[in-house]
Amino acid sequence: MSVNNKEKSIEEYGEEVYVDSVTLLKTSGPKIILNICVAVLIWLFGNMIFIPISQGIFVYEYAVTSIISLITLVTLAGLMVSIVYELRRIANAAAGILAYEVGKRGEVSVEEVSHYRTALTGLLYVSIISIMFLFFSTNLSLIHPALTGIALIAVVIWAFFTLWRVGRALSAEISRYVEDLGKKMEKR
């Protein structure tokens, strides 16, 4: 009897994760689209209009180009933090849906959802941070050329570590599926 209750609770957990995940997708999607559009506009206006206008202008000994680059970077960084937060919510939602779909239709363990979340959020973060670096590199080099190199080294080290974690999470799930497949084959 306790086995049936345990199986039922696993199925209920799987369905609960699925419903929560769909709700997260509905609420976070529009926020991300809006913030990305605003970030692109800020980047375009900052880099294509305001920075070219400011070239050769100084306030005391400070180049206005560097000041505008810094303002653009800070504004974009604030938007990117909001975008990354919402993308994390979407990655968690996608992990829940993926775990539900890949699992036995509702039989999803907490560990399985955790592995999918680690993998999806890791891949998403590496992609987003790489794109953010491309957005920021021009402005960083206008402030000081060494900033671009330092930021790139930090991004590469962090990305490789994150991708290693993604591989470990996926390895655990693949091992579990292979073990389940092996048990099914032994029964035949």
Structure commentary:
The protein has 188 residues and is mainly alpha-helical. The protein has one domain. Helix content is 90%, strand content 2%. The chain has helices spanning 2-54, 64-102, 110-143, 145-187; strands at 58-59, 62-63. Strands 1-2 form a two-stranded antiparallel ribbon. The longest helix is centred in the N-terminal third of the chain and has 53 residues, at 2-54. It is elongated, with a radius of gyration of 23 Å.
Summarize the structure.
This protein has 188 residues and is mostly helical. Helices cover 90% and strands 2% of the residues. A hairpin with a 2-residue loop joins strand 1 (58-59) and strand 2.
Helices and strands, with pairings:
Layout (H helix, E strand, L loop, with lengths): L1 H53 L3 E2 L2 E2 H39 L7 H34 L1 H43 L1
Largest sheet: 2 strands, antiparallel
- Helical stretch count? 4
Mean pLDDT: 84
Sheet-strand content, in percent, reads under 5%
Helix/strand class: mainly alpha
Overall body shape: elongated
Helix content: over 70%
Q: Terminal Cα separation, in Å?
A: 27 Å
Strand order of the largest sheet: 1-2
Order of helices and strands: HEEHHH
Query: Residue ranges: pLDDT <50 for 5 or more in a row?
Result: 1-6
From the structure above, extract its key features.
single chain, 188 residues, mainly alpha, two-stranded antiparallel ribbon
